[in-house]
């Protein structure tokens, strides 16, 4: 595209309208039109100013690309896709280079979408956290890496992940570990890979993750999981030793930030993953048990009220965990009478 490297004021004025037009093609149900739009996006993203504008219009530009990637991974849109990613679900079929991934996303379109996202990862320091908060990019890319059928797509996925994780180590490395990216990289290493850039990126990513995992603690793992907003039955939740050693630390962490995050998680219905609510009730019950004098602080956040509401849940596990959590409150209430 002629204006790809033109950063004049006239071009910058026209760019938002051009991106809006191309986004209508990217949202089309016609794969050919989608591919045209994505290739034109790529042609526009050579300069930082164009990437900044692309990100500012992300509801039009990035969102449809994420939708294509979710479809390629065999996932549905919305909350269900996030739940399926954490459960490791998603189906894919490959039929050679000209084949299709999930729901008919061709390899050519997949490659071009990954190319655009790789170009955007050059701005990882500025957009990485928001990209992950809004689109679960680390989890999605870990899943795509597991399914990637060609070295050229694997290379782009690895390079994008490295750019994102390297520039946002504190916030994104914990998510990558929870998504089991380190073990996945070990599995990929057993494949017969020949691309030197791919191998270099994979080693760099392995080193980055190894340096993090050798220094992180179980408390760090728990904080990362809660901050990620999606709970799973990872080891800390069922460990009495963990709660005995860390319950007070969790409540006091950054002036109650963890308790507020738990409250935020519990406010959501989690219709497609009720397990999250069961785990949250378990955690609240453990906090009350280990630090009963702080239960009023938890009540102010609405946690006791929400636990009582969840006793009416149609999910048996949620009802059981909410009953156990409420039992802690009642125990200390009776003890003080």
UniProtKB/TrEMBL annotation:
Could you name the Gene Ontology cellular component terms for this entry?
fungal-type vacuole membrane; vacuolar proton-transporting V-type ATPase, V1 domain
Query: InterPro entries, from UniProt?
Result: ARM-like (IPR011989), ARM-type_fold (IPR016024), ATPase_V1-cplx_hsu (IPR004908), ATPase_V1-cplx_hsu_C (IPR011987), ATPase_V1-cplx_hsu_C_sf (IPR038497)
Tell me which domain of life the UniProt entry assigns to the organism this sequence originates from: Eukaryota
**Which keywords appear in this protein's UniProt record, sorted alphabetically?**
Hydrogen ion transport, Ion transport, Transport
Residue ranges crossing the lipid bilayer per the database entry: none
An example of a GO molecular function for this protein is: proton-transporting ATPase activity, rotational mechanism
Q: Which residues form the ATPase V1 complex subunit H C-terminal domain?
A: 216-334
Is Cell membrane among the key words of this record? no
**Does the record's keyword annotation contain Ion transport?**
yes
Protein family membership: Belongs to the V-ATPase H subunit family.
Identify this protein by name.
ATPase V1 complex subunit H C-terminal domain-containing protein
List the taxonomic lineage.
Answer: Eukaryota, Fungi, Dikarya, Ascomycota, Pezizomycotina
């Amino acid at each position: 595209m002629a204006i790809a490297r033109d950063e004049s004021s006239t071009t910058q004025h026209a760019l938002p309208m051009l991106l809006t037009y191309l986004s209508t093609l990217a949202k089309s149900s016609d794969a050919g039109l989608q591919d045209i739009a994505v290739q034109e996006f790529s042609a526009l993203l050579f300069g930082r100013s164009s990437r900044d504008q692309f990100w500012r219009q992300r509801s039009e530009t990035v969102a449809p690309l994420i939708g294509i990637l979710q479809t390629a991974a065999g996932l549905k849109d919305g909350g269900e896709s996030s739940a399926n990613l954490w459960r490791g679900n998603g189906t894919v079929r490959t039929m050679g280079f000209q084949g299709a991934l999930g729901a008919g996303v061709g390899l050519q379109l997949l490659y071009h979408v990954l190319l655009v996202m790789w170009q955007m990862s050059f701005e990882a320091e500025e957009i990485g956290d928001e990209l992950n908060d809004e689109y679960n990019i680390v989890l999605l890319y870990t899943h795509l890496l597991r399914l990637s059928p060609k070295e050229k797509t694997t290379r782009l996925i690895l390079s994008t992940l490295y750019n994102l994780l390297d520039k946002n180590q504190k916030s994104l490395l914990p998510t990558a570990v929870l998504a089991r990216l380190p073990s996945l990289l070990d599995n990929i290493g057993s494949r017969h890979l020949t691309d030197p850039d791919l191998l270099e990126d994979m080693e760099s990513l392995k080193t980055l993750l190894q340096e993090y995992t050798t220094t992180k603690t179980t408390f760090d793992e728990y904080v990362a999981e809660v901050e990620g907003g999606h709970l799973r039955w990872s080891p800390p939740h069922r460990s009495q030793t963990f709660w005995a050693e860390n319950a007070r630390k969790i409540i006091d962490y950054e002036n109650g930030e963890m308790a507020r995050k738990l409250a935020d998680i519990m406010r959501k219905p989690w219709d497609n993953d009720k397990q999250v609510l069961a785990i949250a009730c378990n955690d609240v019950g453990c906090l009350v048990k280990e630090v009963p004098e702080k239960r009023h602080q938890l009540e102010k956040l609405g946690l006791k009220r929400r636990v009582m509401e969840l006793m009416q849940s149609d999910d048996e596990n949620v009802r059981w965990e909410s009953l156990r959590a409420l039992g802690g409150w009642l125990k200390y209430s009776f003890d003080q009478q």
